[in-house]
Design brief:
It is built from 3 helices and 8 strands; from the N terminus they run ββαββααββββ. The protein is of the alpha+beta class and 151 residues long. The protein has one domain: Jelly Rolls. A 5-stranded antiparallel β-sheet has the order 1-8-3-5-6, with helices on one face. A 3-stranded antiparallel β-sheet has the order 2-7-4. β5 and β6 form a beta hairpin. The protein is elongated, with a radius of gyration of 17 Å.
């Protein structure tokens, strides 16, 4: 059995899709990720794709990709459990009043995903999608590193 490994950097500096244009909220990024890794992904019969977002004020998550109410309800939950604004109790506000809340939200959802690869495709459920959650009010360019491992 031969172990193959391929690493691809996504979204930056690739000019085709810059996350700096995304506003605060949830953004379905599965198709952009697949577009970038499809040639390499198709070489794997079995393995794992590891996605790593190199930022502490955004996050990656897998959730339903059909009903937009899921995004709205998740926003409602996050804003209720992690208050924002000048009246919030946070001490870390170096980059503004949303600074500490975005770090908490990023930690809650994490910056990594590991997905199974089966027959050259990501083996995800029918209604599952890969979401990048931009927590900042003023987003910056986001970089996702994808590492593919398998046979």
């Amino acid at each position: 059995m031969m172990l193959m490994q391929q690493t691809s950097a996504l979204f930056s500096p690739n000019p085709a899709w810059k996350t700096a244009t995304l506003r605060r909220g949830y953004h379905l990024v599965a198709s952009q990720i697949l577009k970038e890794i499809r040639p390499d992904l198709s070489e794997f019969k079995s393995g794992f794709a590891h996605l790593f977002l190199q930022h502490t004020s955004a996050s990656l998550t897998i959730n339903e990709n059909y009903d937009s109410d899921v995004r709205g309800d998740t926003n409602t939950f996050l804003n209720k459990i992690v208050p924002e604004g000048r009246s919030a109790p946070w001490k870390h506000t170096l980059e503004g009043p949303d600074d500490m809340p975005v770090h908490i939200k990023s930690s809650m959802f994490d910056c990594t995903l590991t997905l199974p690869i089966t027959d050259g495709k990501l083996n995800m459920g029918t209604w599952q999608g890969i979401w990048l959650r931009e927590h900042r009010n003023a987003p910056t360019v986001r970089r996702v590193v994808v590492t593919l491992n398998g046979i």
